[in-house]
Amino acid sequence: MAISPHLLGRINEKSGQPKFLQIADRVRELIDSGALSLGDRLPSVNEVIAHFSVSRDTVVKAYQELKDRGIIESTPNKACFVSNVLLHEGAKKVLFLSDSMAPYKEQLYFGLIDSLSSGFYVDIVTHGDNFEILKGVYEKYKAMRDCSALLVIPTAAQNREEDYFKFVNPGNLLFLDRRLPSLRHPAVWQDFTDGFFHALSPHADLLKRYRRLVFLTKFYTNPIIEEMKEGLALFCGVEGIPFVHEHTLFTDRDIKGKLCPHKKDLYVVLDDHLLVSLMDACAQNSLVIGPDVGIIAINDGPFYSRLPVPISVLTTNFYAMGEAAAHFVINGCVPSAPIPTVLTVRASLLD
């Protein structure tokens, strides 16, 4: 819906506040009052110029101010619309700096915002596992006076974080999902090695019905993958199950025909793309998922439990991780132990 510029009211010619800020505040007030809703289109620059008898520069600066506040956006044809009605003046800002927004990371975010009061607003930024982006975003938010907490998921490599954050006081910084053991900074994290081992151990009798365990990843590695591998190998060593770490290349063309599951293989799969490719390979080889080939996915997906053969998952409780992060934001406290990892058994494993 497009609103009339007359709803913007008037600006005070005698005020010491710049006119562009007054215009921005009028829009902000309409959003707070409910007169402007999510997706509503703002008056055009020309309409605002005519309504207030101000310069084009003043209106452009007003709309840029609202964009900088994160409450409006513009389309390619320059029309502006309300993009955020949750960010209120005076709200305490929390940065959630994630490596990605995969579905399981969204669960972390949901646990966080569900557990915070209405006085907080969470900004989500992703760094894509790039330390330079992580550092730049962190430093930008650290400089904001209204940013009450900085929640950071480190890159998978983590080595550059250790060099950088050892000179940063812990303060309102919390590491999520992974901790940096060499630093004294607080963390809410999962333990990939012991966590995997302790999650699989209660199900040893079920898993030992398969002839070997295959850890399936793409053709790269990092400290997180190596820790997962250690946990899986430790479990297999204790239970006497042969263990294989199998790598594949990246694209459909690279993967096609390369996955060769055999009867009574148990696969632990890190990547959704590889999971689909493995399921296709099972079908092509007339292998039934569960009785013939076991599959465990690392981290749950929104549809895993709803597939024709529901997929078992090895995962930590990301929602609980978000709840713990909210507790840190409010009270400054964190759990002393990692968030546990569990194996949820579904039909992709033998009964």
Offer a quick outline of the entry.
Helix 1 (19-33) packs across helix 3 (56-69), helix 4 runs parallel beside helix 12 and helix 7 (192-200) packs parallel to helix 9 (223-239). It is built from 12 helices and 13 strands. The chain is of the alpha/beta class and 351 residues long.
Can you walk through the features of this model?
- The chain is an alpha/beta fold and 351 residues long.
- It folds into three domains: 5-82, Orthogonal Bundle (Arc Repressor Mutant, subunit A); 92-190 and 319-340, Response regulator (Rossmann fold, 3-Layer(aba) Sandwich), CATH 3.40.50.2300; 192-315, Response regulator (Rossmann fold), CATH 3.40.50.
- Helices cover 37% and strands 19% of the residues.
- The chain is built from twelve helices and 13 strands.
- The strands form three sheets. A six-stranded mixed beta sheet has the order 9-8-10-11-12-13, with helices on both faces. Strands 4-3-5-6-7 form a five-stranded parallel beta sheet, with helices on both faces. It has a two-stranded antiparallel sheet with strand order 1-2.
- Helix 6 links the parallel strand 5 (147-152) and strand 6.
- Helix 1 (19-33) crosses helix 3, helix 2 crosses helix 3 and helix 7 packs parallel to helix 9.
- The longest helix has 17 residues, at 223-239.
- The mean pLDDT is 90.
